[in-house]
Amino acid sequence: MKQKFISLALAVMLLLGVTGCAMSTPASVGSIGGVDIPAGIYLLAQYNAYNTASGAAKLATGETASNVKAVLKAECTGTINGEEVTTDGADYVARLTLRSLQYYAAVEKKFDELGGTLDEAATAEAKTADTQWENNSDLYAANGISKATLEKYQLNSKKADACLKLIYGENGSSPVTEQEYADYINNDCYYLELVQLPLFDQSTYTFASDDQKAEIEALANQCRDDLAAATSESALYSAAMTYVPQAFTALGSSVEATQALYYTGSGLFTPSDLSSYNTNDGGNSITDAVKAAGTGNWTVADLGMSYMIVRSLDPMEQGTVDDFVSRYNLLDAMKSDALQDEFYAEGAEMENNLSASVMKTYSASKIKKTVK
Questions:
Q1: 310 pairs with which residues across the strands?
Q2: How far apart are alpha carbons 197 and 38 in whole angstroms?
Q3: Separation of alpha carbons 46 and 99, rounded Å
Q4: Across the strands, what pairs with 57?
Q5: Neighbouring C-beta atoms of residue 349, cutoff 10 Å
Q6: Which H or E element spans position 113?
Q7: d(C-alpha 289, C-alpha 298), whole Å
Q8: How far is the C-alpha of 219 from the C-alpha of 296, rounded, in Å?
């Protein structure tokens, strides 16, 4: 009975401790810039760093990402601090872990300096850690990471979002001006109208055959011509209801005409919105196509998973700066990357008072990728 009671007590400490560690181990690994780094945050940063390293590791035949010793010894090549790095897995994990902790500390410090507070909505969103915990609780617990740690990490992300508004928002210390918004909308964004004809059958998880693709390409070209000749404001929706079902039929599938409307759209697209269509040669499948066609002209872009019938329009003929600022998260699109870089830079300049002995206690060699 005594042995069972001790085991239960240890389990409770693991679940309730903010760091996710038993009391016999240090609750903190030190500080960066005066910001305390809880052990749980360290372990989570290290665990995430390991997952990144395992994807960059050159493993021998038969070795997998679950083989921690192999990953830590393997050669890893990737980008850290904007530079390509080739080193062993253990060093790669250590570098990424430190970078993550520096970012964490910089966010915490900046948030406090700005007098930031999180509203109930932001705090509630941090509870999304519940799902993350439920899906991987055994593995997280095996690595000394508690649900409270996941929530603390999520709160740090929300603080970063708050800093963005506290600095660049309307009432921030360096607010983005209307002219800056206008320049960004005109020079970096695209206002697009589009219809997509699928080249992938989601019901069978198969791509269109060469014959099917040729048939759908012909439909896309016909749709483009119809839209080019149309004068009705509802032409985009009519085109979707006409050609999307035909594309599904060509794939050997079907879709209701009303559901075809999900394959059309119009609005302002930021570089981030379009980034998934970037090509290996530095271009972009969508923007290259609309640039070549010219503003207002319909064209067809091959996106691999679909044919997009698309045209770009002058954004300022579709709305005002205030309209776009209120409807789209332009502040995030314009400034989030720059602020993130600033956090990394500031974190790297902060005084590092992490304990080498404590970090050794939480060595990456103790990471577990499977739970028995």
A1: 194, 299
A2: 50
A3: 10
A4: 76
A5: 11
A6: helix 89-113
A7: 9
A8: 20
Hey, what are 15's tokens? 């679940």
Instruction: Assess contact for 221 and 213: CB atoms under 8 A.
Output: no
Contact 235, 309 (CB under 8 A): no
pLDDT tens, per residue, the chain with 372 residues: 334 434 433 333 333 344 444 335 799 999 999 999 999 999 999 999 999 999 999 999 999 999 999 999 999 999 998 899 999 999 999 999 999 999 999 999 999 999 999 988 888 877 777 788 888 899 999 999 999 999 999 999 999 999 999 999 999 999 999 999 999 999 999 999 999 999 999 888 999 999 999 999 999 999 999 999 999 989 999 999 999 999 999 999 999 888 999 999 999 999 999 999 999 999 999 999 999 999 999 999 999 999 999 999 999 999 999 999 999 999 999 999 999 999 999 999 999 999 999 999 999 999 999 987
Residues 216, 341: Cα–Cα separation, whole Å: 43
The position carrying tokens 């394959």 is: 263
Indicate the burial class of 187 (C-beta count within 10 angstroms; 0-12, 13-18, 19 or more): exposed
Q: Which spans in 114-177 are helix H?
A: 120-125, 129-142, 147-168
- Phi-psi map region of 245: left, alpha, beta (phi>0 left; psi -120 to 50 alpha): alpha
3-state secondary structure of 268: strand
Which residues are CB-neighbours of 340 under 8 A, at least 6 positions away?
103, 160
Q: CB of 360 within 8 A of CB of 94?
A: no
* Radius of gyration, CA atoms only, the chain: 26
Whole-prediction pTM: 0.82
Place of tokens 């790669």: 92
Q: What 3-state DSSP class applies to 277? A: helix
Residues 6+ apart with CB under 8 A from 314: 191, 295, 296
* DSSP-derived secondary structure letter, 57: B
19 to 54, 102, 177: CA distances (angstroms): 24, 18, 42
Q: What angle do CA 158, 163, 165 make, to 5 degrees?
A: 100
369-372 long-range Cβ contacts below 8 angstroms, 24+ apart: 369/65, 369/66, 369/68, 369/139, 370/66, 370/139, 371/138, 371/139, 371/142
